[in-house]
Input
Amino acid sequence: MARTIILDCDPGADDAMAIAFAVGSPDLDLAGVTTVAGNVSLEKTTANALRVLELAGAGDIPVTPGSSVPLLRPPLTAEHVHGDDGLRGARLPPPAAAPRPGHATDFIIDTALAAPGEVTLVATGPLTNIALALRRQPALAANVLDFVIMGGSSGRGNVTPAAEFNIAADPEAAAIAFGAGWSVTMVGLDVTLRATADAAVTARIAALGRLGTDLLLPCLGSHAGGDRVAELPGPADSYSIDPAVHDLCAVAYLARPDLLGLEPARVEVETAGQWTAGMTVTDFRATPPRRNALVAMTIDVPALWETALASYRRVAVTG
Output
């Protein structure tokens, strides 16, 4: 039986790849997509979610926008990684549909509470929407089947030496999410930095037709021939392309849990440190009941790509 999921995201190139995977996976039932500001503005993340779903032949899946700013801090965006449009110049038309009315928190709460214990919530962007939903309805934590994030790390960052982007973008929201009383499955940089596409994978993606050439390859920072894209705006030293498919790892894990090796831990989010704000301080020595997380520490990258490519082929045929 397919697992029902809500994907809260900030598309973003790797979010787009995660959305396409969720549409194509026979093991997942994508009940809805909610968007948050992160990699780019909320207007762009929402439009990108709609664009990807329409390309994938899944324009009937609702997209509900959420928060346009973090809880307390100025916005942190990543156009230097994802390009001004958020999708590294992917060749997708503007969305034909409008987002669903209402706020992401309404959709998350209403969907989860209507089916207690049946909905998995997966977040691949800053956790602002999740924190707002928990503040409005603390019972959310007891009513979802599972809560999985792409974010954090047990020992390194990517926007600072201490902090990963999704957590650094809204540390206060992340602290609320980790302290909500549920177990957070943290799929962070410990594993996602290993999830890159080699030339063989890129060639197989190129063979997927428009899904590959117009979306997936640009999101990977590649042309159909496998060369790195060099057309992002600004001088060459003003941006970097991150080839890792961070968000795909978290969503693919829901379809195939054996992709990741998880270790129980206590995770606290640093919100006050001058140099460490956004750090996910991870204590693997913690014992029950102090444990609040399962932290991904190993990943089977070949199996990840076999699983992903199988889902993308389904989208390419039906989209």
Summary: DSSP finds 13 helices and nine strands in the chain. The first strand starts at residue 3 and ends at 9. The domain at 3-318 is CATH 3.90.245.10 (Inosine-uridine Nucleoside N-ribohydrolase; Chain A).
